[in-house]
């Protein structure tokens, strides 16, 4: 048996995985004991990460739509047709009538080439990916507050924390190896504060559980600051030496008294006081957050409020401190780093900056567009209105994962041309004109960048099924069809180009990565990489406080309940891989809506009753599950299940700064289904 060291394909923890190969097939996976994050451990999805690789449903040949049917064609035919249709649309409607969604499941090299395809070949900055639905508020908020949108410290650094505030993160289920580290820190004496409207396992294990109403995070965060200022627990030296804007924030925080916070959030003053004391008194405190923070129409404000908290207490730039936006997909950090975003080239170099643009034009040998592109949800709106006519979607399943599914269907059906690259048939490939079968993580070389900015090697263990090909090759072929030079002999050569144009990856080469990888910024070949950011200074000089107010949340009498959506440990998003992994699907085979027993009694609903959930955008038939994990007035649906897609109910209400939709709070009503 051969053993190939690689990286888990699921979440941003970035665990080291060993694939076991026998007779050209992956037969199992086990943890890597030498790996700095996993240290010999994996969660259940990691142990089962090899299961879908040889599934019979894998896409094996390129397909082209012929009326209602999909016909098998050669790669040459599929790619030539794609290039021809995209070129025709561009001639008729201009480059900005085209768009690319790249994949957080893809490698850095694939994301870089797809972003290059959008800019250098199609001529548009319309390139984005699911980070828009995920940590766009972190990229925007931490970007303006600290100068970098990434996690400040490595996961391991939490072991040195004296207090850890975890908010909007179902950590034991969604980032199991981060949760294991947090619980290890707690066992050593750190105080664990968890803010989540639901009583998750993390909340159950917390020393202090704050259960705010959905969407009221700015209020309680400002409230903690109010108490921390009142008790003299701020770090005045840090504020004076390294930040600006504190006086305006202080004035604002004065108004968020415990009583005012209780009215907005429902959090009892005594709990808020305990949390503020624990966080404020800790010599080293850290904030860990995820989608409960970002997926709101106030997502950027929520992030800024948390940044205020760590800055005011001087908890940045040291081991045991910091702010941890937990990145979701195993390479969503990398997809952002590679410039699969409408306003940035790789390394967050702005497309609007003439110097950056000239540099990229010289590197890519062509003129580049200067106007920022559309974000993911804006692309869907433009498609419905006919402003976007041709799209490439690589490794995303927006039919299940994007908000307001009715609108997504209308948008994708309105396109004149859609090409989709995936490893499995999905609800989105079903609408494609061309389907491109690509290699999975086990069948290609390249790199992923984990949530702790750790750039790690992904290694080919087996050959792709049928005619499926690594997407690096597919993207390079498309670039050449648009006369852009793309003579890459291997993903390593793509990484060489990435490091030549991307300062933070400047010292990265596949050869250097080894088992532990390298954390960016790593500007030069002799640089060891950077585990803790902002140690002496911030990239923007001084960090900035932003005085953010709690948004007013109007009541809607027609929709008296609030839906929040999320995930389960056993499934990954739209389930394309986990629902094809028997042992995972068996654990969580069907969709349910969680309802508090008191709400259920008022509705005349029991566990197992079929109900109809209705929002302003759609309705859904789904089975009820009664649980006190959700508070009264709140219901919860995991969005994994195509049979009952939660996004039928969500809306496109966007955060004005980051353009993330408010997926965590949708007004709904519920009734028993007829019959
Ligand atoms: N098993 C598994 N792991 C995954 C994924 C997966 O699909 N399956 N997906 C990956 C990806 S891409 C991501 S982004 C991460 C997501 O990881 P998480 O963000 O941890 O997961 P979610 O279930 O989206 O939501 C997190 C929590 O936010 C809480 N919440 C909702 N509204 C609010 C609010 O207003 N305030 C606060 N404080 N909390 C709120 C919810 O109750 C929920 O417990 O997981 C990654 N890991
Ligand atoms: N209601 C609601 N909606 C949400 C969220 C929520 O919390 N609530 N969360 C949002 C968030 S944070 C995220 S990140 C998104 C996730 O949304 P998506 O990223 O669209 O969901 P996935 O199911 O992970 O889709 C990944 C696709 O990539 C394919 N794939 C796997 N490996 C490869 C590969 O190597 N190459 C290629 N090309 N494809 C591959 C998979 O088969 C799958 O079809 O969902 C968002 N939508
Ligand atoms: S914690 Fe995340 S990266 Fe680690 S094994 Fe589980 S899914 Fe994979
Ligand atoms: Mo995500």
TrEMBL record:
InterPro entries: Asp_de-COase-like_dom_sf, Formate_Dh-H_N, Formate_DH_asu, MoPterin_dinucl-bd_dom, Mopterin_OxRdtase, Mopterin_OxRdtase_4Fe-4S_dom, Mopterin_OxRdtase_prok_CS, Prok_molybdopt-oxidoreductase. PROSITE patterns: 4FE4S_MOW_BIS_MGD, MOLYBDOPTERIN_PROK_2. It comes from Candidatus Methanocrinis natronophilus. The gene is fdhF. Its EC number is 1.17.1.9. It holds the Pfam family Molybdopterin. One of its GO terms (molecular function) is formate dehydrogenase (NAD+) activity. This is Formate dehydrogenase subunit alpha. The keyword Lipid metabolism does not apply. Gene3D superfamilies: 2.40.40.20, 3.40.50.740, ADC-like domains, Dimethylsulfoxide Reductase, domain 2. Keywords: 4Fe-4S, Iron, Iron-sulfur, Metal-binding, Oxidoreductase. Residues 1-57 form the 4Fe-4S Mo/W bis-MGD-type domain. It is an enzyme of class 1 (oxidoreductase). SUPFAM superfamilies: ADC-like, Formate dehydrogenase/DMSO reductase, domains 1-3.
